[in-house]
């Protein structure tokens, strides 16, 4: 099964549905399986006196509150319905993260295939219960979380009868530095909870996602934008459409490199075996009736004859036919 690649549009539409549609087009162009947005009512998730996160200050300055910044990035439910329909037309899966109950109900009603939960909600157990009751598959990001917090979140979800959960390792910092990625934590969660894991990539390059796929990630998510210089909290740490296309190609190439895990020669190796492997041959001209000893045989190319491992069936046997130096020794000669 291929790695599921989510193009995280998030709020990089800047509150403009025309930009949101262009992001959908870009995600389709790049080869993503799905494009994801964030659905919320700002008044329900952010207090008017909440301060911005450090990365938000770095990317947007400190002249406005977190509430004012996020309010500008809000789209209406009608607009999200329009985006869902546009995704259907473009044949790319629409996903959006609900940040409160009304948005959760709305998204479930318009038929999203799964619920993606952001890292901010890992400890919001009441909301996790409401999400779980929808009966949809859940992808849960775990940035900022301890293993114990993740365990409690999973227990809460399971208690509602929902076991279709994929955990996403993440570092909630934009961009994430290499020393803070800690991909082995993804492996730790898979081993601890025995469920699929993925990686939400906030680094600037492809390397972390490629490594995550090599470690067994089944889902990869990454932010993308039409222009890194646009105003907003996430643009600077996002990929352009062409960069995202290269990102998708790198992941697909990694999947090819990983292969099936079955150790056997490839079709091309099977042809190479004949030229490169060795066979049992006569070390010199030998007459019929000769009893074969070790000094009478050598292992040389081509590999079309008896393999060296079959020497025990050759030594001590009498030749029925005379052989020339370097001639393959076959069972018919014995």
UniProtKB/TrEMBL annotation:
Pfam families: NeuB (PF03102), SAF (PF08666). CDD domains: SAF_NeuB_like (cd11615). It comes from the Bacteria. Residues 279-334 form the AFP-like domain. Coiled coil: none annotated. InterPro entries: AFP_Neu5c_C_sf (IPR036732), Aldolase_TIM (IPR013785), NeuB/NeuA (IPR020007), PseI-like (IPR051690), PseI/NeuA/B-like_N (IPR013132), SAF (IPR013974), SAF_AFP_Neu5Ac (IPR006190), SAF_PseI/NeuA/NeuB (IPR057736). Gene3D superfamilies: Aldolase class I, Antifreeze-like/N-acetylneuraminic acid synthase C-terminal domain. PANTHER family: N-ACETYLNEURAMINATE SYNTHASE (PTHR42966), SIALIC ACID SYNTHASE (PTHR42966:SF1). NCBIfam families: NeuB_NnaB (TIGR03569). This is N-acetylneuraminate synthase. It comes from Clostridium zeae. The lineage of its organism: Bacteria, Bacillati, Bacillota, Clostridia, Eubacteriales.
């Amino acid at each position: 099964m291929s790695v599921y690649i989510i193009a995280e549009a998030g709020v990089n539409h800047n509150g403009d549905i025309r930009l949101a549609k262009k992001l959908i087009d870009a995600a389709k162009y790049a080869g993503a399986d799905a494009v994801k947005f964030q659905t919320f009512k700002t008044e329900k998730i952010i207090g008017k006196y909440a301060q911005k996160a450090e990365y938000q200050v770095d990317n947007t300055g400190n002249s406005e509150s977190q509430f004012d910044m996020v309010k500008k990035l809000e789209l209406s439910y009608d607009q999200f319905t329009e985006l869902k329909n546009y995704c259907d037309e473009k044949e790319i899966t629409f996903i959006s993260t609900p940040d409160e109950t009304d948005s959760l109900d709305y998204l479930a009603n318009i038929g999203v295939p799964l619920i993606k939960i952001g890292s901010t909600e890992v400890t919001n157990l009441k909301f996790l219960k409401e999400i779980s009751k929808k009966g949809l598959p859940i992808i849960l990001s775990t940035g900022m979380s301890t293993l114990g917090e993740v365990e409690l979140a999973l227990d809460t979800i399971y208690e509602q009868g929902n076991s279709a959960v994929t955990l996403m390792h993440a570092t909630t910092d934009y961009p994430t530095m290499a020393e803070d990625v800690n991909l082995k934590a993804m492996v730790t969660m898979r081993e601890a909870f025995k469920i699929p894991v993925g990686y939400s990539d906030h680094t600037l390059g492809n390397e972390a996602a490629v490594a995550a796929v090599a470690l067994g990630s089944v889902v990869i998510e990454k932010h993308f934008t039409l222009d890194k210089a646009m105003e907003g909290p996430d643009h600077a740490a996002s990929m352009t459409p062409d960069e995202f296309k290269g990102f998708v190609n790198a992941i697909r190439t990694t999947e090819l490199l990983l292969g099936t895990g079955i150790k056997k020669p490839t079709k091309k190796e099977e042809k190479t075996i004949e030229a490169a492997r060795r066979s049992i041959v006569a070390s010199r001209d030998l007459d019929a009736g000769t009893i074969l000893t070790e000094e009478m045989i050598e292992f040389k190319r081509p590999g079309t004859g008896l393999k060296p491992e079959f020497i025990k069936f050759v030594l001590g046997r009498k030749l029925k036919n005379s052989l020339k130096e370097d001639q393959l020794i076959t069972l018919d000669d014995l």
